[in-house]
Amino acid sequence: MRLFETGRLTVQRFTEADSDLFYQINGNEETMRYIRPAKTRSESDAFLTENINLYKNGSIVGRFAVFTRADNRFVGTFSFLYLSDAENIHLGYALLKHARGKGYATELVKAGLGHFFQHTDRNSVFAITDPANTASRDVLLRAGLSFRGQWQGDGNMLDLYGIDREQFVMY
Predict the structure, then answer these.
(1) What whole-number distance in Å separates Cα of residue 145 and Cα of residue 168?
(2) Cys staple from 109: which of 28, 78, 121, 143, with CB 3.0 to 4.6 Å?
């Protein structure tokens, strides 16, 4: 099922048949460097099943596959996940090396914000990033999010960015 599209990308639900693609992201140490430790194949497969189960209640929450529209090439993931409670949601993304530097991340975040505010009644959405990940910080700022402070996550201090519904401007 398609979640949303941009001019160049399609964002859709993962299926069990996507285990190789899911592992390309989650098993890749370079791609996971600022996100979490890379997973083994069996850990990634279990993580995929856990993720697919998030879709079952029809909520916006989950990790989604990102493909190019031109040639249907897998380029990464986009997500809406609970921050640390069921009250606040953060968006995230991870791109494979071949897809970086093409503007996909900014395109995903901008379109993802539009999808979020059109399909939820929530007033804010957040993003977290490692302070050393300046490329991700720049993407978030270009997409209209602003720095909100630091957030403690998994034992690390991360930078918290956010945008409120009334601040969001559809691009």
Answers:
(1) 9
(2) 143
Residue whose C-alpha is closest to residue 88's, from 33, 161, 159, 26 = 161
| CB-count burial class (<10 Å; 0-12, 13-18, 19+) for 83 | middle
Largest CA distance in the chain: 43
pLDDT, one tens digit per residue, over 103-113 is: 999 999 999 99
Calculate the dihedral angle through the C-alpha atoms of 82, 25, 127, 170, rounding to the nearest 10 degrees: -100
Structure tokens, 66: 């990102």
Q: Which residues, including other chains, have CB under 8 Å from residue 96's CB and lie 6 or more apart?
A: 24, 25, 28, 31, 74, 75, 76
